Amino acid sequence: MAQPLIRSFVEDLAAAVPLPDPIVEFGALQVEEHQDGDLRPLFAGRPFTGVDMRPGPGVDRIEDLRSLSDPDGSVGTALCLDTLEHCEDPPQACRELTRVTADGGVCVLSSVMLFGIHGYPNDYFRFTPEAFRSMLAGFDDVWAAGIGHPDIPTWVVAVGARGRRLDLSLDSFPSLREAQDRYDRATGKVRVGPLHLGPLELARLIAKDAPRLGRERLHALRGGRS
């Protein structure tokens, strides 16, 4: 189930490079009703299959991402968005995604990094861009990037291609470029490491901890005596 930014990332990718049929979304369950997780409209009129480990909205077929039933080279475009963090063996899942992607095909990954633990039904891992490059090493060309703080990005995305070159950069994706520029500008925000907080939010946090910090400071001035 893709977040709004990741949905825009896929839309930008489809405009930048040909994405061959058939299209299979691995991790297609639309979990949250308030989010528009249906990617089918981006590929209207084209063969699209939604796959997930459990039934529900957006799911056409039940599969274990670690052992797919798809034949070798049978998927033109493999989408695995905001899903690998919920898989118990991501490297094996990516080996399977590599196996089923056809020559000339594309595999698209996304996941969160600076993000709270969340279910669906379990949350196991976080990935760096280097991790995605490593797990897509079976492809002939791989592009990966983090969006947000360079040391701990909020989102990580990657695209792998078989038998073709991608020639992608962050500028190939207007939505990602705008998200990165917005993070860098931090308009109206206070930078606290990788976090950007509004002044009122920061003031509330300081007010909450101020009594404790005052007691600790007083304790230190007294030489640690009670």
Note down, in words, how this protein is organized.
There is one protein chain. The protein is an alpha/beta fold. The chain has 2 domains: 182 residues, 3-Layer(aba) Sandwich (Rossmann fold); 32 residues, no CATH class. Helices cover 29% and strands 23% of the residues. The chain contains 5 helices and 9 strands. The protein has a 7-stranded mixed β-sheet, with helices on both faces. A hairpin with a 4-residue loop joins strand 6 and strand 7. Helix 1 packs across helix 4. The protein starts with a helix and ends in a 5-residue tail after the last helix.
Radius of gyration: 21 Å
Calculate the terminal CA-CA distance, rounded to whole Å.
53 Å
Q: How is the quaternary structure best described?
A: single chain
- Number of helical segments? 5
Mean pLDDT: 94
CATH class category name of the largest domain: Alpha Beta
Q: Report the CATH architecture of the largest domain.
A: 3-Layer(aba) Sandwich
* Strands, total number: 9
What is the CATH topology classification name of the largest domain?
Rossmann fold
Q: What order do the strands of the largest sheet run in, or round the barrel if closed?
A: 3-2-1-4-5-7-6
Residues in β-strands, percent: 15-25%
Task: Kindly name the structural category.
Answer: alpha/beta
Task: State the gist of this model.
By secondary structure, the chain is of the alpha/beta class.
Indicate the topology:
Layout: H1 4-16, E1 23-26, E2 48-52, E3 61-62, E4 75-81, H2 90-100, E5 101-112, H3 129-135, E6 141-148, E7 153-161, H4 174-185, E8 190-192, E9 195-197, H5 199-221
Parallel strand pairs: 1-2, 1-4, 2-3, 4-5
Antiparallel strand pairs: 5-7, 6-7, 8-9
